[in-house]
Amino acid sequence: MENDNTELDRMQRAYKAAVEEWIAAIRAEEALASVDHSVAKLDNWESAHFLEEEARSRAQAAKKDYEGALRSVMFGFR
């Protein structure tokens, strides 16, 4: 009998997309760390850090959901 992995596939795509967003946020923060030494640039850098943290949290949540679903399918528990 063939398994329907539609939901797992969706969760995997969501996790991968969240990781890609996190990577982009890290790169944006890093780019701002290499600019001139002004208060405005420091504020932009700090803002980018908060965006990176939010993206990281979304990636971690998506990973947790996906891992839980995999455990449920593979081992019958969460």
Report the uncertain regions: none
Largest sheet entry: none
Overall domain count: 1
Number of helices: 2
Reading the helices and strands in chain order gives HH
- Total strand count, please? 0
- Cα end-to-end separation: 23 Å
* Mean pLDDT over all positions: 91
Q: What portion of the residues fall into strands of 2 or more residues?
A: under 5%
Gross morphology: rod-shaped
Rg is 18 Å
Helical content band: over 70%
Class from secondary-structure proportions = mainly alpha
Description:
With 78 residues, the chain is mainly alpha-helical. The chain contains 2 helices and no strands. The protein is 82% helix and 0% strand. The two termini are 23 Å apart.
What is this structure's SSE topology?
Elements: H1 6-32, H2 39-75
Helix pairs in contact: 1-2
What labels would you give this structure?
78 residues; mainly alpha; 82% helix; rod-shaped
Short description:
With 78 residues, the chain is mostly helical. It has two helices and no strands.
